[in-house]
Amino acid sequence: MKYFYLILLFALTLISCKKDSKTDEGDVAFIGGELINPTVNYVIISKGKEVLDTVTLNKKNRFNYKISHMEPGLYKFHHGVEYQMILLEPNDSLMLRLNTMEFDESLVFTGKGARKNNYLINLFLNSEVEEKAILGFSQLPAKDFESKLDSIRDSKLRKLKRFSGKLTLSDLFIELVEANINYDYYLSKEVYPFVNYTNTEREILEGLPEGFYDFREKLNYNDDNLKDYFPYYSFLKHHFENVALAEHFKHSTDSVFDKKSLEFSLIKLNLIDSLLTDESIKNSLLIGTAIEFISNNKDVDSYDAMLISYTSKSTNSGQKNYVEKIVKALKGLKAGNPLPDIKVFDVNDNELNLRRVTNKKPSVVFFWSQANLMHLKECHNKVKELKTKYPEISFIGVNANNENKELWLKTLEKYGLSAEKEYLFKFPKEANQALAIYPINKVIIINKKGLIENAHTNMFSINFEEELLGVLNQ
Predict the structure, then answer these.
(1) Distance (Å, rounded) from C-alpha 44 to C-alpha 355?
(2) Spatial CA neighbour of 370 closest among 437, 282, 440
(3) What is the spatial distance between Cα 287 and Cα 265, in angstroms, rounded to a whole number?
(4) pLDDT of residue 269
């Protein structure tokens, strides 16, 4: 009965919007639903780069939207900083329900088109669970690793065959599921040299069995149907990382992967530029490579070379402008500088300056988001451990991209997080840019003078505690 209201609403909408004989709306689909704990009062529906509409939630946090002249394929449902892909085909009438505090995990579909979308979201969630198991047997020799990986893929393909035998499914759905299964498989092979810790990356790459990467011969680098599909994009990102590293080893004496290597990142940019023609995919991979390099590298003198190479290849002026601003921000975050002038709220709704929150005491500023619950839990667990070891240091948590104070406080309460030294940005977009918060696990260390010691570190790195001791011994 809990979906009765929505079902009735869609039925009435379908009747009232019945095609007029004088109006040709082409193929039509409907999407609607209910959000629990919304972070903003609207949702955004888009396809590819095109935003179709911004739909306001009603007083009961529900919405409905009709897509006329629709093209079958993947559509994106945005809410706040989070999103999920939805497969829509002609005559679908899809309803969703989710709790923003567990966005993907709580997402459920009903209505026409629900079964295929529930299948896809479950495939996505199961893949996240499988990642831990795969990481475990990634320490095995390559042939044993490949055998276990083959077994997982075969099991998924058999499940798809059983599912397709019960229903009439479109070719597009089958293509998406097979792509999900295959690109997850390919991705695991691409990251194997990076997550196997038995040897260096060079030794692993040189010791792979013949045919380990045969699947590369059939790759489509410009698949228009998959360009917005996360498994495809994730695969391409790591594929170019792997191929660039192998090329880098040909020209260097390095044995291990170094994210800070300018030469490696420039090779990666060149490979992306030479092999991709689809501008959307190409630009996304280019900006990802540029941001990853400048976020991991403290050598600000190397930023300009990266920026020149990146801007010469990207065709997205907005993204190029963003990277230029990030570079400028990072140059301003040099060791010895104070934090930028950033406004935050504490749990009592007091407006403060982040620069003053450290109170001229050795501090660690870390960031988290509801969009990454795993990191939210892991970083706070790590901070709890570090607080015990280093009571002289102040650990300052900032919710990086949420504008909803009530949801922020609910999240702190739900996960049992201490409200002391927890803050919320007043202007998240501007703050993220000024502090160059990418990736979300970025951490800033402040010394006792209130000045930046390191603006680009990670509390999970093996050298992090050495950095803390260094600050305490100043």
Answers:
(1) 34
(2) 440
(3) 11
(4) 98
- For 366-397, the pLDDT digits (tens) are 999 987 888 999 999 999 999 999 999 999 99
Strands 62-67 and 73-79: unpaired
Q: In what order do the strands lie in the sheet with 73-79?
A: 50-56, 42-47, 73-79, 82-88
This model's pTM is above 0.85: no
100, 88 contact by CB (below 8 A): no
Distance CA 223, CA 219 (A): 9
Distance, in Å, from the CA atom of 88 to the CA atom of 85, rounded to the nearest integer, reads 10
The string of DSSP letters for 151-166 reads: HHHHHHHHHHHHHHHH
pLDDT digit string, tens, across residues 316-374? 999 999 999 989 888 889 889 999 999 999 999 999 999 989 877 899 999 999 878 88
Q: Which residues of 245-270 are buried (b: 16+ CB within 10 A; e: fewer)?
A: bebbbeeeebeebbeebbebbbbbbe
Which two structure tokens, joined as six digits, stand for 447?
């010394």
Pairing status of strand 422-425 against strand 394-399: parallel
What is the enclosing helix (H) or strand (E) of 443?
Answer: strand 443-446
Q: How far apart are CA 258 and CA 183, in angstroms?
A: 25
> Across the chain, how many H-helices and E-strands are there?
16, 15
What the block records as the tokens of 50 is: 């095109």
455 near 447, Cβ under 8 Å?
A: no
CB atoms within 10 A of CB 283: 20
The residue to which tokens 């260390």 are assigned: 445
Q: Which distant-in-sequence residues (6+ apart) come within 8 Å of 377 by Cβ?
A: 415
- Phi/psi at 94 (nearest 5 deg)? -100, 130
pLDDT digit string, tens, across residues 36-63: 999 889 999 999 888 999 999 999 999 9
Q: Is 240 exposed, middle or buried (0-12, 13-18, 19+ CB in 10 A)?
A: buried
- Going by C-alpha positions, the residue among 129, 108, 126, 125 that lies closest to residue 117 is 108
In sequence order, what DSSP letters do the residues of 201-264 get, joined into one string? HHHHHHTPPTTTTGGGGG--TT-TTTTT-HHHHHHHHHHHHHHHHHHHHHTS---S--TT-HHH
CA distance 97 to 153: 30
For residue 197, the SS3 value is coil
Its sign, for the CA torsion 244, 85, 75, 58, is negative
| 293 Cβ contact list (under 8 Å, min separation 6) | 259, 260, 262, 265, 306
User: Cβ of 76: how many Cβ atoms within 10 Å?
Assistant: 17
Q: Tokens at residue 217, please?
A: 């011969």
What is the per-residue DSSP string for 350-362?
A: -EEEHHHHTTTS-
